[in-house]
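re: that chain from earlier
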Amino acid sequence: MKEIFEQYGGVIITVVAIAALAALVTAIMGNGTSGPVYDAFKNLIDNFGNNIGTP
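^ sequence. v structure.
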């Protein structure tokens, strides 16, 4: 086990970091029609339309 970490430690850390980043982005973005980012943009567009008088 020690030899594996000595030889491939950097690669293992990189793979884990990329997987964690992908999981974080997926959790934040949601599935396209839900999630905090989608809701924030939808509210922003709706509020902008209401403020300029467009239904």
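Helices lie at 2-29, 36-51.
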